[in-house]
């Protein structure tokens, strides 16, 4: 991430330096390298969006400036637009797509994160149990898991815990991981004899027929009623209620087939290839996953509701059978092949799943996270981060910025902010301090845009609700160090006019360099590995908040 972030900023500056030679070979070269670097950055981690935003802001300002240039023809201006659209949008996006294409092609085996992907995608993975059962779904004897087809859709789930408000009945949710509580089976509608294991005839599920959907482990019926859902208050709550004896007509659901992939019997429900909606016969609403997360009492699982009057193509109401077990039915034919999935749909689905997973990493107010930290603690070096076990027999590594450079860079950021404010006030009073184009260019590329990049990489972690750690500051720290270098250079520039001044400038540079190197050497054990008891390194605990040495030993 750091490599490609640095490469993006470097190539961006080199592209800026070619602004006097638009559409030259070097201009195109650095434009394309910038686009490739941005694509690689976003492909590593979503934090790459921050450096993309910085380059985007620069591009908007650049094109706005060109618009006021009367010497530039409209043809040239449009070519500037087209070149940047190609180099800074199309190229990064193609790199991003290519990385996922390679990712999908290389990772061909099943793993722990399968459930985040659509069922048909999982079925093509080597070693996956998805889609391995019989093709047709039967009444009673077929145990199935049912997956929602919305982007980020999960498996229909229930557990013994009840809703704290509303009906106080058993919770029904959507859960993104494989679990025994995801298993359901279909039974006859309320008022008809329940299915029995003694029955020998196979009765297949057919569209338009009313069924009860029963949770296998608890025996509760999938149920809805005119009670507001826990989060989406305009929709009806879905719960687990009753059993084979206790219940009412709100336990009855109708299967509506929306799509059949392949050439199998269109009047039967098939594993994976049949997309269907589940309509409550009594209430007239449709089973749906809203995309909202339940509070702590619902284990932050996804909310399930009975949705009133949804659009027919609303994928939140579309479901498919993901796994199917039934010893009474013939197994899937060995030569059966599932249809291929669409790459772009898989690409979008996986990215939304990653975003949902990232957004779910919120602090638990009832638990103390020893490793988590707040954004203000990073530039001040208030805390560090243990990267491994802290036993006496283990090499120990501790993530902490070098005090000489981190503290100095934090001061430089504040000093440069103050400088910008002062320059703006003076500019409003008709003072022009940066008349020299060379000084103005260095101010922009060495100070202003690094400050913008620092803010874009740091401020989101100040306001976001997800849990944060020390390593989140690393990209911002890099830009703070650039600002530090600019402050040194600009602050000592006047000293270079005389021999004595140049000597003093060299002494200050050399002194600070020696301080940084010495500080790094002093703290080198935390990088190269601390062998033996942590108490041997108690001298590195400059502050009580640094837990390089165990608290009980200090």
UniProtKB/TrEMBL annotation:
<feature type="transmembrane region" description="Helical">
    <location>
        <begin position="503"/>
        <end position="523"/>
    </location>
</feature>
<dbReference type="Pfam" id="PF02815">
    <property type="entry name" value="MIR"/>
</dbReference>
<feature type="domain" description="MIR">
    <location>
        <begin position="202"/>
        <end position="258"/>
    </location>
</feature>
<dbReference type="InterPro" id="IPR036300">
    <property type="entry name" value="MIR_dom_sf"/>
</dbReference>
<keyword id="KW-0812">Transmembrane</keyword>
<comment type="function">
    <text>Transfers mannose from Dol-P-mannose to Ser or Thr residues on proteins.</text>
</comment>
<feature type="domain" description="MIR">
    <location>
        <begin position="134"/>
        <end position="189"/>
    </location>
</feature>
<comment type="pathway">
    <text>Protein modification; protein glycosylation.</text>
</comment>
<dbReference type="GO" id="GO:0031502">
    <property type="term" value="C:dolichyl-phosphate-mannose-protein mannosyltransferase complex"/>
</dbReference>
<dbReference type="InterPro" id="IPR027005">
    <property type="entry name" value="PMT-like"/>
</dbReference>
<dbReference type="InterPro" id="IPR032421">
    <property type="entry name" value="PMT_4TMC"/>
</dbReference>
<dbReference type="Pfam" id="PF16192">
    <property type="entry name" value="PMT_4TMC"/>
</dbReference>
<keyword id="KW-0325">Glycoprotein</keyword>
<dbReference type="InterPro" id="IPR003342">
    <property type="entry name" value="ArnT-like_N"/>
</dbReference>
<feature type="domain" description="MIR">
    <location>
        <begin position="266"/>
        <end position="324"/>
    </location>
</feature>
<feature type="transmembrane region" description="Helical">
    <location>
        <begin position="473"/>
        <end position="491"/>
    </location>
</feature>
<dbReference type="Pfam" id="PF02366">
    <property type="entry name" value="PMT"/>
</dbReference>
<keyword id="KW-0472">Membrane</keyword>
<feature type="transmembrane region" description="Helical">
    <location>
        <begin position="439"/>
        <end position="461"/>
    </location>
</feature>
<keyword id="KW-0677">Repeat</keyword>
<comment type="similarity">
    <text>Belongs to the glycosyltransferase 39 family.</text>
</comment>
<keyword id="KW-0328">Glycosyltransferase</keyword>
<feature type="transmembrane region" description="Helical">
    <location>
        <begin position="81"/>
        <end position="104"/>
    </location>
</feature>
<protein>
    <recommendedName>
        <fullName>Dolichyl-phosphate-mannose--protein mannosyltransferase</fullName>
        <ecNumber>2.4.1.109</ecNumber>
    </recommendedName>
</protein>
<feature type="transmembrane region" description="Helical">
    <location>
        <begin position="407"/>
        <end position="427"/>
    </location>
</feature>
<keyword id="KW-0808">Transferase</keyword>
<dbReference type="InterPro" id="IPR016093">
    <property type="entry name" value="MIR_motif"/>
</dbReference>
<dbReference type="GO" id="GO:0004169">
    <property type="term" value="F:dolichyl-phosphate-mannose-protein mannosyltransferase activity"/>
</dbReference>
<keyword id="KW-1133">Transmembrane helix</keyword>
<feature type="transmembrane region" description="Helical">
    <location>
        <begin position="30"/>
        <end position="61"/>
    </location>
</feature>
<keyword id="KW-0256">Endoplasmic reticulum</keyword>
């Amino acid at each position: 991430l750091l490599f490609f972030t640095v490469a993006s900023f470097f190539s961006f500056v080199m592209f800026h330096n070619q602004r006097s030679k638009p559409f030259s070979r070097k201009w195109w070269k650095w434009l394309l390298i910038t686009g490739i670097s941005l694509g690689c950055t976003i492909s590593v981690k979503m934090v790459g969006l921050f450096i993309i935003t910085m380059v985007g802001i620069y591009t908007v300002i650049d094109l706005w400036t060109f618009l006021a240039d009367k010497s530039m023809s409209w043809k040239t201006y449009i070519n500037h637009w087209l070149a940047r659209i190609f180099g800074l949008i199309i190229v990064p996006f193609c790199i991003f797509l290519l990385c996922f294409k390679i990712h999908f092609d290389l990772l061909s085996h099943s793993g722990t994160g399968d459930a985040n992907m659509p069922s048909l995608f999982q079925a093509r993975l080597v070693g996956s149990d998805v889609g391995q059962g019989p093709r047709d779904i039967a009444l009673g004897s077929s145990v199935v898991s049912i997956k929602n087809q919305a982007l980020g859709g999960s498996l229909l789930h229930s557990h013994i815990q009840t809703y704290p408000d509303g009906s106080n009945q058993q919770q029904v949710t959507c859960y993104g991981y494989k679990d025994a509580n995801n298993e359901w089976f279909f039974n006859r509608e309320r008022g008809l004899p329940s299915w029995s294991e003694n029955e020998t005839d196979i009765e297949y599920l057919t569209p338009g027929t009313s069924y009860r959907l029963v949770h296998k482990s608890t025996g509760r019926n999938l149920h809805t009623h005119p009670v507001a859902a826990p989060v989406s208050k305009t929709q009806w709550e879905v719960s687990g209620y009753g059993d084979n004896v206790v219940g009412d007509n709100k336990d009855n659901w109708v299967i509506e087939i929306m799509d059949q992939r392949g050439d199998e019997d269109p009047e039967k429900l098939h594993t994976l290839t049949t997309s269907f909606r589940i309509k409550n016969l009594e209430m007239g609403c449709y089973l749906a996953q809203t995309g909202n997360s339940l509070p702590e009492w619902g284990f932050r699982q996804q909310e399930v509701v009975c949705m009133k009057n949804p659009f027919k193509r609303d994928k939140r109401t579309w479901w498919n059978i993901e796994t199917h077990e039934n010893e009474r039915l013939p197994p899937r034919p060995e030569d059966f092949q599932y249809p291929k999935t669409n790459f772009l749909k898989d690409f979008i689905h996986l990215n939304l799943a990653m975003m949902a997973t990232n957004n779910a990493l919120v602090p638990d107010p009832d638990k103390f996270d020893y490793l988590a930290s707040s954004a203000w603690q990073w530039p001040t070096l208030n805390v560090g981060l243990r990267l491994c076990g802290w036993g006496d027999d283990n090499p120990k590594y501790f993530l902490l910025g070098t005090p000489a450079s981190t503290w100095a860079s934090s001061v430089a950021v504040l000093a440069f902010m103050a400088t910008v404010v002062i320059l703006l006030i003076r500019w409003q009073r008709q003072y022009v301090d940066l008349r020299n184009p060379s000084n103005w260019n260095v101010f922009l590329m060495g100070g202003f845009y690094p400050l913008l990049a620092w803010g874009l990489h740091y401020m989101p972690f100040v306001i976001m609700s997800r849990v944060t750690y020390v390593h989140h500051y690393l990209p911002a720290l890099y830009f703070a160090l650039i600002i530090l270098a600019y402050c040194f250079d600009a602050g000592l520039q006047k000293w270079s006019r005389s021999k004595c001044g140049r000597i003093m400038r060299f002494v200050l540079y050399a002194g600070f360099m020696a301080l940084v190197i010495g500080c790094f050497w002093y703290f080198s054990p935390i990088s190269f590995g601390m062998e033996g008891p942590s108490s041997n390194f108690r001298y590195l605990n400059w502050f009580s908040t640094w837990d390089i040495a165990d608290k009980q030993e200090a």
